[in-house]
């Protein structure tokens, strides 16, 4: 039963991160998730120092605050300072993450709160983090948290599909139609920030970034249709979580790391398949051209 909870957690995180990652890929902002997952570290430390407690809600508030701060800083550098988007992301997350590392080393030496915990998560311990109401256990608490977040993500995509679609493919055209692109941008960034914060404590920052980027990128190789991309992303995310777990069992390795490796392996296989298909089509077209030329 423990294996089931671990796999289910991986699937829920893969779906919530991957579905939002599709829009980040289309907006060429794939590494925003990486920035947020690292930049929340000072928020976690400051929340601990203020509350003098490792209470999950307090940590979540601190992390969410810095997650939102990260998105605002990236957008501010990009819009106001005229710095390229990738440079804005790099400046913001390295600066905030470095501050977090310094705070950890200065103030939390005697507490089980470190950058490795944030980076790698504790997905293997998910089955033991139970939700108790009175004397009754309702399964692992992270399952309820991730499940609730996934429902919010799906509902947000369904009801905001048109706005997300237009602003992701052509923000200039959307602005010409009178659509408030800034509002949709911050709604998406807010959803990404919340999802990253809720997910990284369970599976770690590395796997969160992998699920945000790799399954959507794999889907993008196969289709440029948004609806089809979302379905392919869900499929590849589930396959990465399940396949990665059994890789970890086989290798006796990190579960989060193995899930990320599985996602990368799927991307490579699809990429090679697409390239082979392109080469075969080019050869077919060349043969048809030569045949038609000779016939003429």
Automatic annotation (TrEMBL):
**UniProt-listed GO biological process terms:** response to zinc ion; transmembrane transport
Q: What is its main location?
A: membrane
- What cellular-component terms does GO give this entry? ATP-binding cassette (ABC) transporter complex
- The answer to keyword Transport applying to this record is yes
Q: Which residues cross the membrane?
A: 6-26, 33-51, 57-78, 90-109, 143-165, 177-196, 202-222, 229-253, 259-280
Q: Does the keyword Membrane apply?
A: yes
Which Pfam families does UniProt cross-reference here? ABC-3
Family per similarity comment: Belongs to the ABC-3 integral membrane protein family.
What name does UniProt use for this protein?
A: Metal ABC transporter permease
Source organism per UniProt? Cryomorpha ignava
């Amino acid at each position: 039963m423990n294996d089931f909870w671990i796999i289910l957690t991986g699937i829920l995180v893969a779906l919530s991160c991957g579905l939002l990652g599709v829009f980040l890929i289309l907006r060429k902002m794939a590494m925003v998730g990486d920035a947020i997952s690292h930049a929340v570290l000072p928020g976690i430390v400051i929340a601990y120092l203020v509350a003098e407690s490792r209470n999950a809600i307090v940590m979540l508030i601190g992390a969410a605050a810095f997650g939102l701060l990260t998105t605002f800083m990236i957008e501010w550098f990009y819009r106001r300072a005229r710095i390229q988007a990738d440079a804005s992301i790099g400046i913001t997350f390295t600066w905030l993450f470095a501050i977090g590392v310094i705070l950890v080393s200065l103030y939390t030496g005697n507490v089980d709160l470190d950058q490795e915990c944030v980076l790698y998560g504790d997905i293997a311990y998910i089955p033991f983090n139970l939700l108790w109401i009175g004397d009754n256990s309702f399964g692992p608490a992270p399952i309820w948290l991730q499940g609730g977040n996934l429902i919010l993500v799906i509902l947000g995509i369904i009801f905001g599909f048109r706005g997300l679609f237009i602003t992701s493919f052509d923000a200039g055209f959307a602005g010409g139609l009178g659509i408030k692109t800034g509002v949709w941008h911050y709604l998406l960034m807010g959803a990404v920030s919340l999802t990253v914060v809720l997910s990284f404590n369970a599976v770690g920052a590395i796997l969160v970034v992998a699920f945000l980027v790799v399954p959507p990128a794999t889907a993008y190789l196969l289709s440029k249709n948004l609806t089809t991309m979302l379905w392919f992303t869900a499929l590849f995310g589930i396959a990465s979580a399940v396949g990665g777990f059994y890789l970890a069992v086989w290798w006796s390795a990190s579960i989060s790391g193995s899930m990320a490796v599985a996602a990368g392996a799927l991307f490579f296989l699809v990429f090679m398949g697409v390239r082979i298909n392109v080469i075969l089509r080019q050869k077919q077209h060349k043969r048809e051209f030569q045949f038609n030329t000779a016939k003429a």
